[in-house]
What we know:
Elements: H1 6-39, H2 49-73, H3 76-81, H4 85-118, H5 137-161, H6 166-177, H7 179-185, H8 189-198, H9 204-207, H10 211-214, H11 219-231
Helix pairs in contact: 1-4, 1-5, 4-6, 5-6, 5-7
Amino acid sequence: MPGLKPVSRYQIAFAMLMFLGSPAWMGLLVFGTLAVAIQGPASFVRPDAGMALFVITLIMWFAPKIATVLDVLSRPRLRDTFGGAGRFIASTITETIFFLLLSPIMWFGHMMFLTGLVLGRRIGWGGQARDDHSVPWNDAARQLWPHTLLGWSCILVLAFTVPAAIPYVLFIAAGPALSVPLAVITSWPSVGRVLMRAGLGALPEENAPPAPLRKLALPAIEAATLRAARRH
């Protein structure tokens, strides 16, 4: 496209790499599982290069999050806007677990989407459901059975061949294996209300709302006000 600025070309290329990364992660899961199962339990991870690559990958994933956590915890005023150190750390752990489960589900969805495009599938842009709603079990199973099959297949293959490798594969396989209950349970309003009352995932705008938000009397802000009153 003529006249496109370099930064725009970079953004397009980066977006393409993000989608190409999803099939790469799924390939790592499938072919890595098969390779470990075929090779057997002896040295399924090289203690030098293998562990170094694993640690570097985790650092790449979590370095921005770790830096943010350290920044918030080192500033008392900012820490208090998140509900205090304990609540902020608990929120971070909860969000990290959710991230580890959700990301592989999205990667597999991207791969299925791209595969459909390559095979000539026509994909339209339908209306998105943005209203509050719960996800029925049958809907979740109908949409996410391929994810579930992939996750449990990899876990069971290793369970019968190299069980010691299961903790490593869970970084990618756990999300797809638990995709159906994850979709259903996280859609329950009761779960949201419990997290809201506990202050997990609360934003500074909830704990210290500006005047325009305070006038709206949002449930999250009311819950934060109640928590503050109990502390004092």
